[in-house]
Amino acid sequence: LALMNQTAKEIGMTATWVKSPDGYDAAGQYTTVRDLLTLTRAALRNTLLVEICSRYRATFAVSDGSTVTWTSTNRFLNPADVLYDKRVYGMKGGFTDDAGCCLIATCQQGGKNYVAIIMGVDTYSARYEYATALINAAAR
Questions:
Q1: What's the CA gap between 97 and 106, in Å, rounded?
Q2: How far is Cα 49 from Cα 72, in angstroms, rounded to an integer?
Q3: 76 and 85 in contact (C-beta within 8 Å)?
Q4: Which of 26, 55, 102, 122 would disulfide-bridge 20, Cβ 3.0–4.6 Å?
Q5: pLDDT tens, position by position, 46-65
Q6: pTM of this prediction?
Q7: Alpha-carbon distances of 113 from 6, 23, 29, 34, 53, rounded to whole Å
Q8: Within 10 A of 13 (CB to CB), how many other CB atoms are there?
Q9: Dmax over Cα atoms in the chain, in whole Å?
């Protein structure tokens, strides 16, 4: 946790304090949209992370010879979903009781990259509705 908080400060996150390594609710833990944008910008500099976050499904070989298939819960990435948006290439969704439904959606439009950050909405569908509105506004 100390390293996570130190790294957050080093990349410029000034209003974040981590108390739980997995992101689940913990007393005294907090962040802001601005800090999540700072974190997203740092993450976007890691090409492997961008590649992973942009996939809807990926299969990986495990050291014992078996395979594991991972499927993203990001509906923007699922070609069979009504919310599929080819402009979106990531990044992270989540939910906790304290934070509500959240989503960081990265997209490319007109040669520019945009980030939509949705925090604290009541439903999973609302986070996509708000993100879609922001993405479409960026497209204009």
A1: 24
A2: 14
A3: yes
A4: 26
A5: 999 999 999 999 999 999 99
A6: 0.90
A7: 27, 26, 29, 17, 15
A8: 21
A9: 50
